[in-house]
Amino acid sequence: MKAKYFNIGVLMALVATLFTACDSDRDDNPVVGPSNTPTEFKLNEPAMSEQYIQLSKDNKVNLTWSQPNFAFPVVTTYQIQVGVVQGGSVKWNDKYLETAFTACNVNVSGEEIAKAICQVDGFATEDDYVDQGFREIAMRVRAFIQTTVGDEVQGTSILSNYVTFKRMAAYCMIPSKTYIYVIGNCSGWQEPKAGNAEALADWRIWETEIGSKIYQGQIEADAGMLQFRFYTKLTGWDGGNSYGTQVDDSPIVCEFTDGEFSGDAMTGKGSWEFDDFPGGKLDITVDMNTNKVTFKLAQ
User: Fold this and answer.
1) What CATH number should be reported for the domain holding residue 214?
2) Is the pLDDT of residue 26 over 50?
3) Domain of 157, in residue numbers
4) Strand pairing of 163-169 and 158-159?
């Protein structure tokens, strides 16, 4: 009898489609691994390959491809890679797009494509960006099998051919750290509107890492009552971008314990109020993943 082995995570993912009976011992059970790595995987020529395409955050680019010829039915994961055609060759981005797919007919985010093109061009900041106009942009797809816990099964990956869009233009899509504004009596209760952007520039606290949604910074205020909340955008008092203690526009009195306060936060206009602020600097951490805040009196 032939020896059989299975990646247990893959077995769990495929059991519904690979086997019609679980109580029989068969010699032809599929082996997941290098022995059945697919050899055929075709990315189809896009219908819009000759058209002018101006990428934006709101548009999509359609791609279709054939299923790789695995030896058995299986759910396949697909990742898309973007490159720029230069002098007859392709300079590929070293990262795949963030969104992965399990279908063979997909609409790809114009924003993600533009971001990848900016990475290929080497633009690190918005100040570096130079509009490159319409160019020939290449795309290809990587297919592979994942376990139920999201690990890639070694030996199942295959890369498609590449296709090109002859006239595609990106835009400035360069990831950077975001920030939120501290609005309160410490900042003079200036309205969080676009016209006050310069005046409020020093009242921003920044992400710790790009995309972390954890904001850290420091403010300074006089002794006495301190009251503030946060705004994610300068769209006015009622723009829906306030972040505080509660939904209602009413402060909640809080106290420091051993120089520190920790609490919950939510989308709303309720402010934190400290009636006994000793004056000086305050370290602020806002975690929008967990909706928690921490305020510490700086030493």
Assistant:
1) 2.60.40.3620
2) no
3) 28-169
4) unpaired
